[in-house]
Amino acid sequence: METAAKRFFSSPYFAVVGASQDKSKFGYRILAWYHVHSLPVTPINPGRPSIALPSKEYDTVPSVLALPNPTQTALSFLTPPSVTRRVLEEAKSAGVRAVWLQPGSFDDRDLKYAKENFESAVGGFEPGTVGGEGWCVLVDGENAMAAAGRKFVRQKL
């Protein structure tokens, strides 16, 4: 899993499936994490035209298929499991190579599908995570970025 996380952060672009304007939701927190770490991120939310952080407003796209560079974009999933499988299938058809299934966004079938269909699939409780909830960008992201040799400059939220 550590190798998959390293490959995930080797991607030039990132997107958050299930990005949210609600500050109490992980869809907002993960989007904010990418922003703070100066990573090029696109929020995916079919119901909103944009999501505003305190220092920047991001235009959303309605689906993975609307991403400008899906084959070069790694996806973080914050969708309910009932939505995740459909979006994983869409991501596969778009040529996405790397996915990160956040805790609570998948079931065992989704994780198996992701591991079988993407070059890099992160999720679950395999060794290497430093958190108790399983592999999470908020907890494991900086270590995975460092392993990928990706430098970042923290910017204001």
Please describe the structure with a list of short key phrases separated by commas or semicolons:
alpha/beta, Rossmann fold, two-stranded antiparallel ribbon, 5 helices, 7 strands, 17% strand, globular
What does this structure look like?
Pfam families: CoA_binding_2. This is CoA-binding domain-containing protein. InterPro entries: CoA-bd, NAD(P)-bd_dom_sf. By secondary structure, the protein is α/β, with parallel strands linked by helices. The chain contains five helices and seven strands. The chain has one domain: NAD(P)-binding Rossmann-like Domain (Rossmann fold, 3-Layer(aba) Sandwich), CATH 3.40.50.720. 34% of the residues lie in helices and 17% in strands. It has a five-stranded parallel sheet with strand order 2-1-5-6-7, sandwiched between helices. α1 crosses α5 and α3 runs parallel beside α4.
Indicate the CATH class: Alpha Beta
Radius of gyration: 14 Å
Total helices: the number is: 5
Per CATH, which architecture? 3-Layer(aba) Sandwich
Look up the CATH topology: Rossmann fold
Integer average pLDDT? 97
Oligomer category: single chain
How many strand segments? 7
**Topology as H/E string?**
HEHEEEEHEHEH
Q: Can you give the helix content as a percent range? A: 25-40%
Cα(first) to Cα(last) distance is: 29 Å
Number of separate structural domains: 1
* Broad structural category: alpha/beta
Q: β content, as a range?
A: 15-25%
Pfam family, one: CoA_binding_2
Protein name: CoA-binding domain-containing protein
Domain CoA-binding: 8-105
InterPro entries: CoA-bd, NAD(P)-bd_dom_sf
